[in-house]
Design brief:
Residues 160-225 form the HTH luxR-type domain. It holds the Pfam family GerE. This is Response regulator. InterPro entries: CheY-like_superfamily (IPR011006), NreC/VraR/RcsB-like_REC (IPR058245), Sig_transdc_resp-reg_C-effctor (IPR016032), Sig_transdc_resp-reg_receiver (IPR001789), Tscrpt_reg_LuxR_C (IPR000792), WalR-like (IPR039420). This protein is α/β, with parallel strands linked by helices. The chain has two domains: 23-150, Response regulator (Rossmann fold, 3-Layer(aba) Sandwich); 156-224, Orthogonal Bundle (Arc Repressor Mutant, subunit A). The chain is built from ten helices and eight strands. The chain has helices at 32-43, 57-67, 83-93, 108-117, 129-140, 156-159, 169-179, 184-191, 195-209, 214-224; strands at 23-28, 48-54, 71-75, 77-78, 81-82, 98-103, 121-124, 145-146. Strands 2-1-3-6-7-8 form a six-stranded parallel sheet, with helices on both faces. The radius of gyration is 18 Å and the shape is globular. The termini are far apart.
């Protein structure tokens, strides 16, 4: 099941180039029922617009290039590979694409591998529709999100003596707010600092954790146990 949903009039050419003010979405999932339910739910939202469905890695990359969606809702388990493979290829060709990954397997290595590709959100597949819709809307605005249930409180790697970077109290505060999916502006207001100062903390945190994105930093911090406790 891949391509434009049956009976839809949208053509591939020109999509994602400002023709429609709504957020355009490509659904990538090899479970027909889930994909149909999600696209049906998206039809009910006036500001969201599902432009197509793909069911494997190859079709997801091909359709993303054709349809140029604002957001891709990507399942982790796919035919021909997985959502991490597909996301990496899509973002290599179209770096501005926002990808929300869903998984029924919240393993730490999956979160870290997904975050390393540059996706913007990571959610459990059995989570609420309201949370998914909110995440899709936020994704287009440039925010990142990872569901709290996917952030383990303790990890064997930390207990086994893995090196934990030394973060200052303020850096830990910023990191934990990042894990809640807040924007830099929101974090700055919550901490009573300027946005530029907050961005400086984010850059330092990424450097200390060896991460290339805020989501990747949160994934690494989760593995190292840095998201627990108070500061």
């Amino acid at each position: 099941m891949h391509g434009l949903p049956g009976g839809w009039s949208d053509m591939a050419e020109g999509l994602g180039e400002g023709r429609d003010a709504r957020t355009s979405i490509l659904v990538v999932d090899d479970h027909t029922t889930f994909a149909e339910l999600l696209t049906g739910a998206l039809r009910q939202e006036t500001d969201l617009h599902a432009v197509g469905v793909a069911d494997d890695v190859e079709s997801s990359v091909r359709l993303c290039g054709m349809l140029r969606p604002d957001v891709v809702v990507m399942d982790y388990h796919l035919s021909g590979g997985n959502g991490v493979t597909a996301s990496a290829r899509i973002l290599r060709e179209r770096p501005g694409t926002r990808i929300v990954m869903l998984t029924g397997d919240p393993a730490q290595h999956v979160l870290e591998a997904a975050a390393a590709t540059g996706i913007c959100a990571f959610l459990p597949k059995d989570g609420s529709l309201a949370t998914l819709l909110e995440t899709i809307r936020s994704a287009r605005c440039g925010t990142m999100a990872v569901h709290p249930s996917l952030l383990a409180a303790d990890h064997p790697s930390r207990r086994g003596g893995a090196a934990v970077p030394a973060l200052t109290q303020r850096e830990l505060q910023v990191l934990r707010l990042m894990a809640q999916g807040h924007s830099v502006g929101t974090n700055a207001r919550l901490l009573s600092i300027s946005p530029n100062t907050c961005r400086g903390y984010v850059k330092t945190i990424l450097a200390k954790l060896g991460a290339h994105s805020q989501l990747e930093a949160v994934a690494v911090a989760s593995r190292l146990g840095l998201l627990t406790g108070r500061s």
